[in-house]
Amino acid sequence: MKKIVAAALACGLALTSGFAAAKEYTELRLAVDVPYEPFEYKAPDGSLTGFEIDLGNAVCAEMQMKCEWVIQAWDGIIPGLLARKYDAIFSSMSINEDRKKKVLFSEPYYNTPSSWFGPDSSKSLDVSSKDALKGKSVGVQRGTIQDKYVTKNFGDVVDVKRYTTADDLVLDLQGGRLDLVFLDYPVGESTIMKQDGFDSISDTIQLGDGVGVAMRKRDKDLADKFNAALKAVKDNGTYDKIMKKYFSYNIKM
Fold first, then answer.
1. Which of 143, 142, 149, 138 shows the shortest CA–CA distance to 114?
2. What residue stretches are annotated with the Solute-binding protein family 3/N-terminal domain (predicted)?
């Protein structure tokens, strides 16, 4: 009898836990690091906008969930997820092996190349050569795959300066406090390439396995919901409509 009662209690607890998890997913808090144009930034009226804001809102609508955006600086965005400050990160987080040890990713939903940017006078620089880059001051956004690439390949010959936001990095390049920067190409395109005297100075470089929604590792059912919703907005044309609003080329995965 005790076994029967115990089994019944266990079943009841499991059902209760299941209902609690389902209820939790009626509302979600999504972390985003701003500004990071054209993916997420503030409009003149202070509202959040950008490719991932529009896509995230479309995915939430597909999941029939109410989603709240939570602004979080990049260097604390995974610790914030693990501390349950929000339920998922929807903020251009590249999928890589190091992050897979800490978080659970959805299927990738975009991938963009990276590029070197600098003054027009640096266009002849061979950015694949350590000798050519030796002694240069190079800006990257802290903790990104671009940071990892520069640190791994040139960290012994260049002065790597790390920034919390891409905006601060661009300001230091324009102010002559950096020789070069290595950025996600669309970010450099929407900021640096709009400035007279600055441009992309290299071919684009494809890094990583694409960008995914990041969740706590145990939230596999939430990942299933994101994957189903992302597939739906890709298949029904919503993704393409949003992408064409911000990009003149295909970033879809």
1. 149
2. 27-250
- Does pLDDT of 90 surpass 80? yes
Question: In sequence order, what are the residues at sequence separation of 6 or more whose Cβ sits closer than 8 angstroms to the Cβ of residue 106?
Answer: 212, 213, 214, 215, 223, 226, 227, 230
The DSSP result for 141-178, as a single string, is ETTSHHHHHHHHHHTTTSEEEEESSHHHHHHHHHTTS-
Q: Strands 88-89 and 27-32: what pairing? A: parallel
Phi, psi of 20 (to 5 degrees): -65, -45
Dihedral class, residue 242 (left if φ above 0, else alpha if ψ from -120 to 50, else beta):
alpha
Which residues are CB-neighbours of 117 under 8 A, at least 6 positions away? 173, 180, 181, 182, 183, 188, 192, 193, 198, 199, 200, 201
Sign (positive or negative) of CA dihedral 138, 140, 146, 152:
positive
Query: 61 CB contacts (<8 Å, ≥6 apart)?
Result: none
Q: What is the pLDDT of residue 10?
A: 41
Confidence of residue 24 (pLDDT cuts 50, 70, 90): low
Q: Is the model's pLDDT at 25 over the cut of 60?
A: yes
At which residue do the structure tokens 């029939």 appear? 64
Give the β-pairing of 180-184 and 114-119: antiparallel
Asked whether the beta carbons of 253 and 210 are under 8 A apart, the reply is: yes
Residues 11 and 245: their CA atoms lie apart, in Å, by: 49
pLDDT digits (tens, 9 = 90+) for 214-239: 999 999 999 999 999 999 999 999 99
